[in-house]
## 1
Amino acid sequence: MADPTAFYEPEDDELLSSLAVPAYGVSAHAFHDEFQHLQELEQHAYPPSVAQQEEEHLAALEAIPQDVKRFLILFHQAILENDLPSISNMYESGWTKLTTAHYANSEWPEAELISPLVQNDQVFLTLYRELYFRHVYARLQPTIDDRFQSYENICELFNYLLNSDGPVSLELPIQWIWDMLDEFVYQFQSFAQWRANPKQKTEEELELLAEAQQVWSCYSVLNVLYSLIQKSHIDDQLKAEKEGKSPEEVAELGGEYGSKPLYRHLGYFSLICLLRVHVLLGDPTLALQTVEHVELSNTAFITRITACHVMAYYHIGCAYMSLGRWPDAVKTFVQVLIFINRMKQYHTRSYQYGAITKQCERMYALLAICTTLSPGPSDESIMAIVKEHYGDQLSVLQRGGEEALATFKELYLGACPKYLTVNPPPYEDPSALEVYAQNPPVDPTQRHLDLFLSEAQAVSGVSTVRNLLKLYTSIDASKLAAFMSPDETDGEDRVLEQLMMLKAASRTYARGQGMGVLDGEKVVTNNLDFTIEGTMVHVEETTAHRRYAGFFVRNAEQAMRAFNTIRSSPLPSPSVRRPQSAVPLPNSAIPPKPSATTIANGVPASDGAWQQVTKRQVRIVG
Amino acid sequence: MQDLSQAVPPKTLSEWHNPSSRTDVIRDLIHGVDRYNPSNLSFMEDYLASQVQDGSYDLLANLAILKLYQFNPQLSNPDVIINILLKSLSASVNGSDFNLSMSLLREPAAILHDIESDDARFMILIPFLTHLHDLIRNCRFAAFWSEFNGGSEGATILRAAYLPQHPHLIPTLRVRFATSIASSFSRISLIRVQRWLDLSESDINDWCASVSWGIEGSDAVIPKNGDNDVKAGVVRENVELSQLTKLIAAAAY
């Protein structure tokens, strides 16, 4: 890690050697060894005090609640045996339950403390520390030591995964693999934000930051993600899958590492994390290029982990926004939001439900922005939620003007990614740091906000002229100028400029069926169009016929549901019916499924009738 | 070399993110981890120089240069940054190219600080180019030319130090502006075209011919291109059979 440029080295071995524990880590280990050595010396010199220490240690171990101890032993066992269902269960529910019961406001026991419980298994302890620090970040305020140690620990883990002799035999549930990488990027983001502000740092913190430049640096984070991607050949695998190659062929492409589920999934999720990092660093084209081969349909692997699904779509949508491709952004957000709303009943109890809901809320806000900048038909159910949550803001946005700009700003700041700067303040140079602190550079989020606002202003500024045009079939530009800016001498030119912008605002590029993420074809997004002949503006409005398909499909579905309910409800009890029936049926004659004819009080509603109705509807629709 | 003989927007973005002028070496470079290798920087900068020379354009390759500067601030080259911004400025009227380049840059003072330079021209040019971009983005073409040809410090530096190396800048800008005009106008007075494209009266006829615009009296007649000849239409609902598979499946049992 000493050489920050190492990760583009094409040689695999060299590539991974750069992933070795960072210099800081090494020195810490050296220190640790020395410490142990000293301890041993002390042991000989003062046996009583060591005994006392051991006693303290034992007492602390003793103090750990019994159920936690039992859990850790079983957890360790499950991981040793690669027993995925048990690991999953303990990871997703056991850990959370024990956290709520014992560690709601404090750390889990230190890894060193519990090591006797797990036979000092270093791999398990590394995994345990990963969970330990994640808990600190989620529930408590991480100190600088936590931040550094967490980095060191995760590097150790990736080092173990990538630099052992051949692929390791460990197996982890995909949820954990995603959470681990997601947390890795989150802690990087959190550290970068914390580091960006040199004010309110203690002496010790300043010193540590000056010393350890490479801790949580962009390079090291990209290094890990790219290494995982390369090691697993995930890009080749995904490309082959898209081409329809057989699983055996794909596995062969994956090679020694990539054919194993653990490495394949690490590679896959690294792509999504890389997408996010690139967006945060202000490079949306590179972000989209990263997920070029990832299948993004609603049935793809990505939907198996809801948090990953939401994270990926949110950042893809944001990338499209930076490219000014509003319809694609809208489509991306809508697609994932529909999915989440449908799945709501299944994941409300998930431990990540809160985070997912928050991310979705951001997407609703961004949808308010995008649909204002590029109005057009969109999914009604999702737009209803947008209107419910952001109704007031939407009407301000659509009115235009200064007030709208302030609302764009407010919505964007609340919902945009927390952009990062690659370059930390000059902690190694105290005098430069002083200058830096007094005159800090513009916050990256502010820079992105400014770029967004300049674009939003240009696009939304045309709403006045659009509203005016709606009233005419043809009008001279000089007349429009008299309405819009009566005081200006070059009013006509200004109006014509506005009209060219209106034209541009209603043309954009959108990703078509089967296209790559960066690809797009020209589309018209507005129903109000015009041609200018000299200075005469001819307005043409395209009207849309009423849409019937949705209506029929919805009603057919409703009829179907009603029919199914009736079908599946039990027969009226025989005691009521028997007196009415002239010939009592023998038991065997009662059909196994209650037939619709018998239930619906004499109204014939057989399967045949249902078929007929639907067919007729299809004919109308088609 | 980009096609400057037609003032119509491209139908797809494939030329934008994967230009035909891009060589395989460059393609591999910007799609792989090698894009982070600073030793490729001079190679990438040469590629930019060739774009400036022959009028071709490769945004993604240029962004890769800015990415290298982002990670290696001590290697930043103000001249290269200005060239990249000029290329993206003339890439399109409504595209996001300029802003995409800007989002990889920090403020000019910070960039200069890291290379221990006090290049005053750079400090002036960045805000000036941003201003020019704003004018273009808002289709204020006449205002753009009066700024571009004006006496401000930024304009003077731009014309003296950069314009001579950019033989394609002005012709490209003209075609971009003309593309915007052609999307809206089917006919436009020549005087206005002259003003918006900064052309003299003697050049206007030849220029119109170069993009196949006709001339009738004092007007330029712009050929139909799908955007300047819109007709009121009715959008009919179009339902594909594949969208109804569920319904039909339900009907089938």
## 2
Amino acid sequence: MREILYYFERDLKRWTRSRKSVFSSLAMPAAWLVFVGLALPIRFTDNYLDFITPGILVMTMLFASLQGGTLLIFDKILGFLNKFLALPAPRESILFGKILFIAFRGLLQSTVILAMAILLGVKMHSFMTVPLTYLVLFIFGVLFSAIATTVALLVDDYDSYSAMNSMASMPLFFTSSALMPYEMMPQWLRVIASLNPVSYAIDTVRALFSGNFLLDGMVELTAMVVVVLMVSVYVFRKATV
Amino acid sequence: MSIKTIGLTRYFDKLCAVDNVNLEVGNEIFGLLGLNGAGKTTTVLMLTTLLKPCTGEAYICDFDVVREAGEVRKVISYVPQDMAVDIKLTGRENVMLYARLYGVADRNRRVDEILGLMGLAERANDRVNSYSGGMRRRLELAQALVHEPQVLFLDEPTLGLDVAARRKMWEYISSLKKNGVSIFITTHYMDEADKFCDRVAIMDRGRIVAMDSPSKLKNNIHSLSAKEPSLDDVFMQKVSAEGEQGGFDDYKFRTLLRRRK
């Protein structure tokens, strides 16, 4: 499956050669951390930054993944996808190349946040917190970039994709456990939040930060990844234009 | 036969885009002519495995385009009309991507060779955003030829190019035929089809209404007209021209213009 790396390298080069997009994707999440983490007047904890950092990390990965679907949309609109689909290389390598790049870019953004968080004095339990956090974020990123890329393959134009993106991203974030603990939520939100896969990732990362390992969260996310990837691979193999 | 179709048909809902098309193409330059919406691109998409026929069969180098799509993809190259080259990558990187994806052996040598053949060697390490339209087209051709395909599909290969770039493009295409490649082209430019295609098929509302060498087609209508007929005259007589079928795709047009920056 070397083809995955070839597609990955193409997207990576295209991204890194545009300094504006590199700067904006690395600076924006950090802005969230500072403005939400330090500025909101929160009463349930005296250190909101400790609480919100896992939420911002997962949010960054979520938005990066959903935004990543536009890569395929533009490949499609501009005619690249037709050329790729007519190649003998396995078609799912297009999908995996995108997933790899989107998840990789999301992890770079997460690194900026982690570094900022450490500078701002966010407490982490041990040195194992960081690699395990990366692992959870990666699995979560694979899940949503696979969904985003597959949806992008199926919709016709950029406008419908971005409409679907904005319909999904904000509700997923605000109905998760990112901003407040379950005890502080109204009953209806608590139900939604406990079903939201974004919460699984946040709760798992939050547990890691305080030294616990939530096996359930990891297993649930991995199971979803397996199912989503099977569907996505099938859709890519069968794709016609 | 490089390309053979038997009763190839494709519906989009109730619209019959391609209607019972029978073609045989060998080592030649074969031009498919027709108005916008006549079914040219749909035909090409089916032959390049990107779209499934509703009924009928199509074979590329004796491989079935539906059942043996993987084999078909190994022997063809397809250049759509969109000028899809990565402008942030260099010319060499653009071609190298395809050499790798095709699994070309000895790819460094092959990429240099094909860039040289397309007259891009000197600018190979420049980013494509500094290339002219003609150079971008030749770069696409280099991508398509890097694995030495047996059948080449070109959708409007000279669209938007100036006179010199067009002539150059046709020189490259003609030299490919001499090297044994079968070339299937769609175009709106009758003068080019007349000059460079060995045979042309005229398509109207999904059906092939005429198919022969340009000179024979012109001879056949000779008696009807006082002056020397051109392929334009043949075309206008064969198709039921009522202006464009369907709406003008301004979205595609804008995309095309934007890419030229």
